Amino acid sequence: MAEKPDHRVILVTGGTGLVGRAIQHAVESTGPFGRQPGDEWVFVSSGDCDLRDFGVTRALFERVRPTHVVHLAARVGGLFANMAAQADFLRDNVLITDAVLQNAHEAGVGKVVSCLSTCVFPDQVTYPLTEAKIHAGPPHASNFGYSHAKRLVDVQNRAYAAQHGRLYTAVIPTNVFGPGDNYALEAAHVLPALMHKCLLAKRGGTPFVVGGTGRPLRQFIYSRDLARLIVWALNAYHDVEPLILSPAEDDEVSIADAAAAVVRALGFEGEYVQDASRPDGQYRKPASNAKLVGLLEDQGLVFEFTPFEQALQESVDWFVEHYATDARI
Ligand code: NAP
Ligand code: GDP
Asked: Are strands 68-71 and 111-115 parallel, antiparallel or unpaired?
């Protein structure tokens, strides 16, 4: 095998998605939450390589020759998309992660940071969620395919550490939103779906319909905050145990309040209704960021999360500005 380069070559799978785009933004800066001297960052999409295909993935690793991997690529979707395609969410994500981790191992990659989600946690559990509770019971039924595939990432990481001494780890973000999201009306997560629905209602003079009762609570993290924390984890988190990345656990927002914030950010003045016949999904899944905060403190670092309303306004402004031009909308 050819010699490894003397600088870090970081392959970012899913580099064109919501979080991948935010990491592109984060590594425009340097420092503990950004690019290190000499870094080479390589962002790939499904068009560059279908990671469900082991052989094609091997060719990608041979071409890029990464020393580090940030593994974001996944089949991702909101509640309604997950409920409609449990088997696809399970299988695609199992195949993608198997191809990435085994090829990383075979190529001698020293460190992989993969992305889980707070969906992986048990439905029946004491709150707040902590890193120790991932496997403590079945996940919520609404996205069990995706959740089990993501739990397996943590199991695989432990197995690569046990058998091969690899430092393959995972971060666990809460619900993410930001510029460059997936805005598919039915398949997207709640905030981008509501931004899109509200903009259409504003432009078409039609009612803005929010699914479910509006009562469920979600702990949102801005993609640009998450990206800086993932880059920090790559730089400075050296443990196979997963790490929750989220704002404080009391930062929960109800779906009704999130919808109201979208209405304000878009300046929508029309009729606005809840459709309670649509599913609510999990009621809440508040996660503790105590481990993250402790680690940052130990390293003498201060991290300020962007306030929700400011992050939402930035995201809505990006969506409106790119509505006619971005390939993902
Ligand atoms: P996203 O916007 O849907 O982007 C998904 C990315 O994965 C895209 O770059 C996509 O490439 C790529 N991808 C999908 N299927 C692929 C395949 N078969 N082969 C190669 N690449 C493929 O997702 P995201 O929100 O950025 O999510 C990133 C990570 O964060 C995921 O692991 C997700 O599970 C996790 N996460 C997300 C959230 C959230 O609320 N969004 C919450 C918690 C955790 P194309 O652009 O070419 O399609
Ligand atoms: P989850 O956190 O994995 O459940 O994912 P979502 O981002 O899809 O959030 C789902 C919550 O938002 C549920 O309580 C839904 O009832 C509510 N919701 C309201 N309107 C929408 C919508 O248009 N799309 C989605 N995905 N969820 C919606």
From this structure: parallel
Report pLDDT for 215. Answer: 97
Task: Could you please state the CATH topology (level 3) that the domain comprising 9-178+220-248+285-305 is classified under.
Answer: Rossmann fold (3.40.50)
The pair of three-digit structure tokens given for residue 252, joined into one six-digit string: 């929960």
Question: At 224, which amino acid appears?
Answer: R
| 169 close to 112: Cβ distance less than 8 angstroms | yes
- pTM for this predicted structure: 0.97
Confidence grade of residue 4 (pLDDT, cut at 50, 70, 90): low
**Ligand 2 pocket member 274 (CB < 6 A):** no
Q: How far is Cα 282 from Cα 268, in angstroms, rounded to an integer?
A: 28
The residues, any chain, with a CB within 8 Å of residue 325's CB and separated by 6 or more, are none
Residue 71, strand partner residues: 13, 114
Listed by start position, the domains of the chain span 9-178+220-248+285-305
Q: Per-residue pLDDT for 176 more than 80?
A: yes
Distance 158 CA to ligand 2 centre (A): 32
Beta-strand relationship, 167-173 and 175-177: unpaired
Q: How many helices (H) and strands (E) does the chain have?
A: 10, 12
Backbone angles phi, psi at 98, to 5 degrees: -60, -45
> Ligand 1: which of 11, 24, 46 to mutate, most ligand atoms within 8 Å of CB?
46
> Residue 279 carries which DSSP code?
-
Instruction: Tell the burial category of 300 from Cβ atoms under 10 Å away from its Cβ (0-12, 13-18, 19+).
Output: exposed
> Alpha-carbon torsion 176, 149, 15, 291, what sign?
positive
pLDDT of 6 = 80
pLDDT greater than 80 at residue 65: yes
